[in-house]
Amino acid sequence: MGLLTEGPEFDPVPASFSLPAESGPYPLSIHGSPKGAGTLKIVGYITHVLGVKSHCRLRDIRSISEAFYEVEVVPALPQLNITTSLPKSAGLKASLASDNAVLASFAVTLLAGESHECAITLTNCGKVPVDVIEIALDKAKTKDPLAKSVFNWSEENIQTQLPLQPGSNLTFTVYVKALGDFISTDAVLPEESPLSPLPYPEAKYKPSKSGSLVSKTSQESNNPETVNNKIVEGMLRIHYSSKESYEAGYQRIANVGMQVTIQPSVVFTRWTTIPAKSPTQFHMVVDVMNHSCHEMIVQYGDSDETTLESKQNKRIAVLVERFIVSQTHKEENLRIGKRESLTKLYAQHLASIVDIRWKIPSNKKSGVIPIDGVTLSQYMVQHMKQCPVEWEVMLNDTFHAMDDAVNFTAGEPITVDVKITNNTGAAIGPVMLMMEPYIDHQNGTHDTEIKDTAVCIGQTTVRFTEISVEETAHHSCSFIFLCSGNFKLAITCMEVIDEHSQHTVKPTVDVMTDTVKHSMDMMPDHLHSKKPTIEVTNTDHVWRYRPTVSLDITQ
User: Fold this and answer.
1) pLDDT tens digits, residue range 175-184?
2) Order of strands, edge to edge, in the sheet holding 102-111?
3) How deeply is 82 buried, as exposed, middle or buried, from its count of CB atoms within 10 A (0-12, 13-18, 19+)?
4) Confidence band, pLDDT 50/70/90 cuts, at residue 252
5) pLDDT for 275-293, tens place per residue?
6) Which residues contact 95 (CB under 8 A, 6 or more apart)?
7) Which of 126-140, 219-233, 383-397 has the lowest mean pLDDT?
8) CA end-to-end span of the chain, whole Å?
9) Are 464 and 472 in contact (CB under 8 A)?
10) Which of 111, 246, 422, 480 is 20 to 30 A from 459 via CA?
């Protein structure tokens, strides 16, 4: 027997059987395979009994109510076999492993910050080429929000290997990135300690060869917090089809289960920013703790590195170029009153330029330590901002060379010319420009009462009503030092509101936030006690020429 059909070409599979006499109804299955797409109409069956061939149509059989049956035949679909380069996962959740479409899976254990690759090979084991492949995470099966950041692959790499002919292979790589919690739950956040969030204020620093700061002392935590492993699972859903079937809306689905166990590596316990020697740079100072079970090397800056034993805590200082966020973003955030949004912009940009890495020589593992979880205070941002005021300082018609002390003889007039150019993108004013000589005793004490050793010719402080965008303001005065020694010259500019109308005012700061006090840490003490008072209304608008001018006076 066989099926009697109309429509696409049909290849029936003949069914032969013996029917005993007076056997009654006898169940029988008749099979066949369509050779093309379209609507296949089954109108009856064919019998061949004792050499007599008969075509029996359903419409002539009273016991069958339907005259025919229609079957929609879709275009031929390809078939894939999937293998992975990593071991199969034996611990997938039941909700993932129970999926009948899971053809493969893999599992890997990584340290936080480490990256790994898994090659997935698709083999066309059918007779139809694969023209379309679409890969995405199954949202219904992938519950962990971290999965989309942990598992990544290149769509372009897959598309360049299509079409996939029968018997051919296609290989693409899933990049597994172990995203961990790099911020300690016991960390002192900037909001709790805005001025000095460092745990060991007594630690001393010395310049390294690359200009970064290196702690002379290392600290080991007595009670380090316990950081548990984290498991991230995801389901990779692969849709594939031939061109004809895809256009008709038909495709196959195959799933790949993915699992990564993330073990702790390094955490940040405290952090802050401090000025660097160069006015165009600052230090990102971080306390890092090794939470792994191995000796670890932490690399930072251009070539600096430090070694951490297991559960050991050390301080590092990363040298970073100062920067400023987009003026458009800044104005928008200030306009809508979201000051904290500006600090987030600085934190995001800082995370994109600071590169801290770790490596474990014993097992040859390595990884990165992102700082995108670090929050910043306004005080920290002050050290990060690129100075919007461009300085030009000349001593006796010679440009001041940074880091070098300038030699003069006692009694020689020293003319100091200062030019400031407004690069803020908006007019600033009124602006006070101040120059003040002092003696630095190298013990935290600054002696500003040097009337008997230094004479000023001209005004040390001048007030500018307004400085327009890209406009340059200029002021000069002369100093005569009557005896030998090393003197410093502090040059400061700030935008203020003055209640008095005089063009030149002796500046003092009676009402000032802690942020401004730290920004003006080199301001001579006597400037904080005399009248008239200057009210600082915006702590962003205080700029100081760095490094302080150093003068060596000889007889």
Assistant:
1) 999 998 888 7
2) 102-111, 252-263, 230-241, 132-137
3) middle
4) very high
5) 887 778 899 999 999 999 9
6) 141
7) 219-233
8) 124
9) no
10) 422
Question: Residue 355 and residue 177: Cα distance in Å, rounded?
Answer: 16
What is the pLDDT, as a whole number, of residue 548? 84
Residue 236 forms beta bridges with which residues? Answer: 137, 256
Tell me how many degrees the CA angle 7-11-17 measures, rounded to the nearest 5.
Answer: 120
Closest CA to 108 of 226, 227, 232: 232
467: closest CA among 497, 502, 503, 426? 426
Q: How far apart are CA 372 and CA 344, in angstroms?
A: 10
Q: Is 244 within 8 Å of 137 (Cβ atoms)?
A: no
pLDDT mean over 420-448: 86
Residue among 508, 472, 470 nearest 492 (CA): 508
- Give pLDDT, residue 451: 82
Q: Could you please report the per-residue DSSP string of 304-333?
A: EEEEE-TTEEEEEEEEEE-B---HHHHHHH
Is the per-residue pLDDT at 308 higher than 90?
A: yes
How far is C-alpha 20 from the chain's CA centre? 79
Which residues, in sequence order, are CB contacts of 128 under 8 Å at separation 6+? 76, 77, 78, 79, 166, 242
Cis preceding linkage at 163, omega within 30: yes
pLDDT given for residue 513 in this prediction = 30
Residue type, 152: N
pLDDT at 497: 61
Sign of dihedral through CA atoms 274, 288, 370, 304? positive
- Considering only the C-alpha atoms of the chain, give the largest distance between any 2 of them, rounded to a whole number of Å: 138
Q: Are strands 252-263 and 151-153 parallel, antiparallel or unpaired?
A: unpaired
Q: At what angle do helices 327-335 and 339-353 cross, to 10 degrees?
A: 150
- CA–CA dist 123, 81 (Å, integer): 5
d(CA 368, CA 179): 10
pLDDT 10s digits, 197-232: 333 333 333 433 333 333 333 444 445 556 678 999
DSSP 8-state secondary structure symbol assigned to residue 531: S
Are 344 and 332 in contact, with CB atoms under 8 Å apart? no
Report the pLDDT averaged over residues 300-324.
92
Token duo for residue 99: 């999926």
Backbone angles phi, psi at 459, to 5 degrees: -105, 130
Angle at CA 529, nearest 5°, toward 521 and 494? 50
Quote the CA–CA distance of 234 and 144 in Å, as a whole number.
Answer: 8
Nearest Cα to Cα of residue 408 among 454, 451, 441, 460 = 454
- The reported pTM is 0.68
Give CA separation, 73 vs 98, 125, 241, 553, in Å. 29, 21, 15, 99
Helix, strand, coil content of the chain in percent (nearest 5): 10, 45, 45
- Phi, psi torsion values for 309, nearest 5 degrees: -75, 170
Counted residue by residue, the chain has a size of 555
DSSP string, 201-222: TT--EEE-TTS-EEES--EE-S
Q: Which residue has the tokens 């205080």?
A: 542
